[in-house]
């Protein structure tokens, strides 16, 4: 069974086409929550300016996300009410996270909850001292526009 690294809820977000196009005829995309993961820990570890060009300063914040991982299954997902997501056979549905996705921490009354952090690379599975999978570790980054 999985260790639950923390008590936080993270939304897994994808930017999906809305069906509209912009003035350059590019598809307009909007953030859509594709999965909720409970029992997570989310911790920013660096922040500050990353690029300064003339009068423009771009800020960023890098963070670690620790998500529960069930051996032989993956990262368990839930709906917004906290009920496990099940397929038509009543089997749990794992979430597959890649670097096209974003992580959004859900923290009431916190500015971090308004930010989508871009996943950098693929989740890495961390193991306990006995060699059993324990949790998934993700590095992600938010950049101010």
Note down, in words, how this protein is organized:
The structure is a single chain. The chain has no helices and 8 strands. It has a single domain, classed as Thrombin, subunit H. The chain has 145 residues and is mostly beta strands.
Summarize the structure.
The chain has 145 residues and is mainly beta. Helices cover 0% and strands 59% of the residues. It is globular.
List the helices and strands and how they pair.
Elements: E1 8-21, E2 27-53, E3 56-68, E4 75-76, E5 94-95, E6 102-106, E7 117-127, E8 133-143
Antiparallel strand pairs: 1-2, 1-6, 2-3, 3-8, 4-5, 6-7, 7-8
Sheet/helix structural class: mainly beta
Number of strands: 8
Per DSSP, the total helix count is 0
What's the CATH C level?
Mainly Beta
Assembly state: single chain
CATH fold topology: Thrombin, subunit H
CATH architectural label = Beta Barrel
Q: N-to-C SSE series?
A: EEEEEEEE
Low-confidence stretches: none
Output mean pLDDT. 86
Q: How do the strands line up in the largest sheet?
A: 1-2-3-8-7-6
Number of domains: 1
Radius of gyration: 17 Å
Question: Beta fraction of the residues?
Answer: over 45%
Q: Tell me roughly what share of residues is in helical segments.
A: under 10%
- Report the span from N to C terminus: 40 Å
Outline, from the CA principal axes?
globular
Largest sheet: 6 strands, antiparallel, barrel
Features:
single chain, 145 residues, mainly beta, Thrombin, subunit H, six-stranded antiparallel beta barrel, two-stranded antiparallel ribbon, 8 strands, 0% helix
